Backbone:
């Protein structure tokens, strides 16, 4: 004979049994709900941002200031210390770190985790404008790119197997052509060139001749900067036509730099080449010995950084990576036929 206790534990009377009974009696609504959940799951997979590479870095803003030729102690006293103390009052900051090295100062500002990157950069710029007056004349601090270490999404190399173009030519193609094409890709923060030789003009002063003519290094630097410019004039009207008068002064080579007039004594000009030697030189790019290529390969490398906040999203990172390759390949079609463009492994382009 069943008791009250057996009736209380009857499985057929439980809440789960009632749900099963209702589901059996209403199969249409059950299938409809399952289809709705399936559609919601598919939409969520395509819309929810997923971390391609988890970005565990802090919200950070970097201030870089160049002061060429100065010792680390001078950099610390005149640049790093004033900037660091000024940035201590920034709101929502956790740490302010300053690093001084030869000719360069770095100030790292770490914000709280919930701070937006672009809010942090805008506030840093506000405080930086107040600190400019405490820096030496001619020193201009600048913010680092709005990207993190995990924003590296694409790397490639320019290779000339024919040997007709040297490292300087390939670096010029990279810096003045391919770089601008890749900067048009949505989400790209920085295109950083690695390797090759950067073209520059070098003025080597003879101290004996300079002292004999009574010049200083500041005189020579001022003469070069003031000579490399065009000057505008007025217009001259002749026969109902207007002719614009202008002075053309842009420097186009070592000969133009050597012909700069420093001073005129008795109608005889003293040119820059009389006290200095002007030559075309190349600044060596940063490249590891392990990245060296065979002698017939000329390889300047390039890496691209994704903007902060985009590198952690699988859709944006993959879109930037997939968009950059066609644009880069399209731009590479305009390169000389002897130069090949090829994607590289990420470990090959980093320092």
Residues:
């Amino acid at each position: 004979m069943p008791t009250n206790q057996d009736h209380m534990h009857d499985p057929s009377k439980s809440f789960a049994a009632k749900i099963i009974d209702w589901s059996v009696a209403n199969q249409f609504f059950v299938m409809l709900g399952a289809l709705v959940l399936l559609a919601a799951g598919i939409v969520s997979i395509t819309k929810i941002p997923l971390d391609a590479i988890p970005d565990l870095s802090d919200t950070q803003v970097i201030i870089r200031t160049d002061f060429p030729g100065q010792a680390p102690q001078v950099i610390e006293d005149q640049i790093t210390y004033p900037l660091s103390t000024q940035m201590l009052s920034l709101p929502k900051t956790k740490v302010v770190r300053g690093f001084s090295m030869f000719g360069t100062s770095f100030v790292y500002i770490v914000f709280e985790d919930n701070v937006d990157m672009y809010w942090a950069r805008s506030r840093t710029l506000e405080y930086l404008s107040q600190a400019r007056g405490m820096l030496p004349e001619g020193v201009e601090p600048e913010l680092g790119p709005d990207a993190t270490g995990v924003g590296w999404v694409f790397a490639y190399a320019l290779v000339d197997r024919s040997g007709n173009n040297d490292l300087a030519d390939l670096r010029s193609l990279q810096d003045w052509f391919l770089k601008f094409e890749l900067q048009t890709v949505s989400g790209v923060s920085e295109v950083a060139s690695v390797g090759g030789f950067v073209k520059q003009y070098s003025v080597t002063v003879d101290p004996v001749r300079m002292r004999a003519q009574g010049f200083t290094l500041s005189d020579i630097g001022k003469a070069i900067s003031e000579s490399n410019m065009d000057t505008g004039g007025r217009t001259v009207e002749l026969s109902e036509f207007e002719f614009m008068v202008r002075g053309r002064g842009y420097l186009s080579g070592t000969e133009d730099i050597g012909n700069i007039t420093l001073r005129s004594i008795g109608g005889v000009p003293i040119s820059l080449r009389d006290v200095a030697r002007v030559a075309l030189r190349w600044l060596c790019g940063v490249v590891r010995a392990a990245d060296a290529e065979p002698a017939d390969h000329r390889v300047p490398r390039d890496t691209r950084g994704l903007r902060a906040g985009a590198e952690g999203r699988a859709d944006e990172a993959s879109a930037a990576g997939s968009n950059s390759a066609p644009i880069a390949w399209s731009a590479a079609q305009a390169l000389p036929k002897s130069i090949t463009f090829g994607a590289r492994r990420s470990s090959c382009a980093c320092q």
In short: The first strand starts at residue 60 and ends at 66. Residues 27-47 form the longest helix (21 residues). The chain is about 35% helix and 25% strand. Residues 286-299, 311-321, 346-351 have pLDDT under 50 and may be disordered.
